[in-house]
Amino acid sequence: MPPYNPFKINPNFLRPTLKASVMSTQVAVAAGVAGLGIYAFYLRRNASGSATGAALATNMDASDLKPGKLPLSGFGFHSLRLHSTELINHNTKKLRFELPDPSQPSGMGLTSALLTISFPKGRWLPVLRPYTPTNDLNEPGFVELMVKLYPGGKQSTHLHSLQPGDTLTVAPIPELKWTPNKHPHVAMIAGGAGITPMYQLVRGILTNPADNTRITLVWGVNTDEDIFLRDQLAELEQNYPGRLKTVYVVAQPSAQSPHQKGFVTRQVLEQAGISAAAEKSKGTKVLVCGPPAMEKALKGTKGWVGGGKKGVLQELGYTLDQIYSF
């Protein structure tokens, strides 16, 4: 098997208006940058040495990966056609993409994401952004992304502009390798759109009869409207009593809001039961996904010769190996 070459780009990845035999300097540079970027992304995501990661890093054929040769089960670039869009709230859209085979699911593993690749408004270099699917990964024929529009956001602006029939180039990327019952309790702390990998994992754990993991989810948002998965989470909480606890923290709640006002602080986490000192088991896993400022406050900072600052989670008694950031 030949070694993986990060500079080998699928011709479908290039602009459809350009011929592959006459590649412009712009496209050549973009292709090289994209290849390097995605290769680096894979190396970073697979540092944990998971079996799936090892297979992807060695460029194994998708047929070598379980559950089989499904569209997004292995490394590679894929062009997905947009089936439909739905405006969820004032700044979030649900984009529903068609898979090549309507009878097959995506083949993506739990906690995996899609690296989206685009050239907004004729940019020289591609824009790469990961998004986590929010629909059931076992659903045949489709994959859905929840995309929050950020002011000046290159990729979110481009994705919000897509119309049914348009295509998007993606590459699957693995994240945390989840093993059922490895941890008796998983504490999830999300900020804004960082809820999507958490939601995918919450549903995957609860709908797996063999997984008895208990879940606590704290989700910090700006306004009540930003809790765009509230109904889905409420249904899971009702269907699996005692397994899922959700806590919402709203920075600017409405006058009638039932949720507490503020930000994700140490006090909020302690009240939610997220504290190593208060837990009987030391096997809790803490997952974090949100804006850089939030993650910095939770995880702390590194410094020269021990000059870093502890984060809130360390102050609560969690060790660095218990904490994982998406």
Please give the structural blueprint.
Layout (H helix, E strand, L loop, with lengths): L24 H21 L5 H7 L20 E10 L4 E7 L14 E6 L8 E5 L10 E7 L5 H8 L5 E7 L11 E7 L3 H12 L7 E8 L8 H10 L4 E7 L9 E2 L4 H6 L13 E5 L2 H8 E2 L7 E2 L1 H4 L7 E3 L1
Parallel strand pairs: 7-8, 7-11, 8-9, 9-10, 11-14
Antiparallel strand pairs: 1-2, 1-6, 2-5, 3-4, 3-6, 12-13
Report on this structure:
- The two termini are 31 Å apart.
- It is built from 8 helices and 14 strands.
- A hairpin with a 4-residue loop joins strand 1 and strand 2.
- It is globular, with a radius of gyration of 20 Å.
- The protein is an alpha/beta fold and 326 residues long.
- Helix content is 23%, strand content 24%.
- It has a 6-stranded antiparallel β-sheet. Strands 10-9-8-7-11-14 form a 6-stranded parallel β-sheet, with helices on both faces.
The main sheet comes to:
6 strands, antiparallel
Quaternary state reads: single chain
Please give the share of residues in helix: 10-25%
End-to-end CA span: 31 Å
Give a summary of the structure in a few sentences.
With 326 residues, this protein is of the alpha/beta class.
Notable features of this structure?
326 residues, alpha/beta, 6-stranded antiparallel β-sheet, 6-stranded parallel β-sheet, 14 strands, disordered N terminus
